[in-house]
What we know:
Elements: E1 8-9, E2 12-13, E3 17-23, E4 26-32, H1 34-135, H2 144-147, H3 199-245, H4 270-297, E5 309-311, E6 314-317, E7 324-327, E8 330-333, E9 339-341, E10 346-353, E11 359-366, E12 369-379, E13 386-387, E14 392-396, E15 406-413, E16 416-418, H5 420-430
Antiparallel strand pairs: 1-2, 3-4, 5-8, 6-7, 8-15, 9-14, 10-11, 10-13, 11-12, 12-14, 12-15, 15-16
Helix pairs in contact: 1-3, 1-4, 3-4
Amino acid sequence: MNVTGQSAVFGRRKELHTVIIARGNEIRHFTIRPWLAAFIGSGLAAIAIGYLLATSYLVLRDDLIGATTARQARMQQAYEDRISALRAQVDRITSRQLLDQQLMETKVSELLQRQTQLSQRHGRLGPLFERAENDVGTVPAEDPAATAKPDKRAEVTGSINQPAQTYAVAGLGGDLGSADTRPFSLWSTRADPLPSDSSADRADKLFVSINQSLKSIENDQLSRISTLADNAYKSADAIQQALQAAGLPVDSDFGKNESDVGGPLIPLDSSMIFDSKVKELDEALDTLDQLKKEARRLPLANPAPGHSVTSPFGVRTDPLLGTAALHSGMDFRAPIGMPAKVTAPGIVTKAGWNGGYGRMVEVDHGNGFATRYGHLSEIDVTVGEKLDAGAVIGKTGSSGRSTGPHLHYEVRHNGEAIDPLRFLTVGRKVAQYL
């Protein structure tokens, strides 16, 4: 039986719940307040929810553990993949650094090898340039390695005459795309570096610039060798043409027709090109030396330079008889006592009085050529004496069949008199080459 009591709280009735328990003659009753009922209900509800949660956990525990394990496995796999990627990246960076180092070492080795090669070439070119200076008369004022101007963006320190181990290069600005001459397979391994490129990229451009400077020196050497060879051939050709025009003997081996040639095409590398150019210059200088040697053996000099000719070669009126006669030489106006000089090297075959020649000296120049110097006032050589060109053989005068002081000069080939004017004309043409 429930007994409800009423009370007013703030003008409202407050209901109380009474529980009566009757057991025989004993009756007990309990009054349950609303807050106690709410507390008990909340507890029962919490117990029910906890039971449900515990039951759900027991039922779903395996699935939750499996999901957690799978998630952890995925996270671990992701971390391992990331670590593998980082390791691969580190390996790539390390490999690139090793490759860059190897490339740089290779390029430095190639640069030093190129410089050593240029130094060796300079050693070979020195005697050639000296010989060309003596033979041709035109040779570079300085060594091409010293006069060659390196690229304005790169200045290489050290001379090719002494191999250097270091290079100091300044001014890398500007486009160097045209600087890559590609003499080696490893040049220009990178694209043109940007301002933000690494030191390896800038070093790569540096190597290209140095290589261009060395290539410029090499090209300048080859160009100068070719120029010297051309000049030597031109000089030899000028001497040959002058001698042939005068009907004088020339070595038949020179100037052979080389148009009828052939053979397979075999490309040359830089060293073979240099050797070929040097060989060509050697051959040109040899040819020039041979022609000079032949020309110097001929009596091409003027026996009395600066003195006028009073009587040429050929038919003339005899100065003593007044009749036509052959004049076998040329007469040069010369005062008594002027030194008479031989016009080519040779050996004295006659030295003394010789009829109408008066005091006469005859010099044999070889190949059938000989010269005579007549009407001398004094003879200063003896028979068999070997003379150089320009040696004094005596002094001019008016001995023998002569009307006044002068020098009688003859040129003979195999005993036959030849007009000396032909030789003097050739001598004037080739004097600059001799």
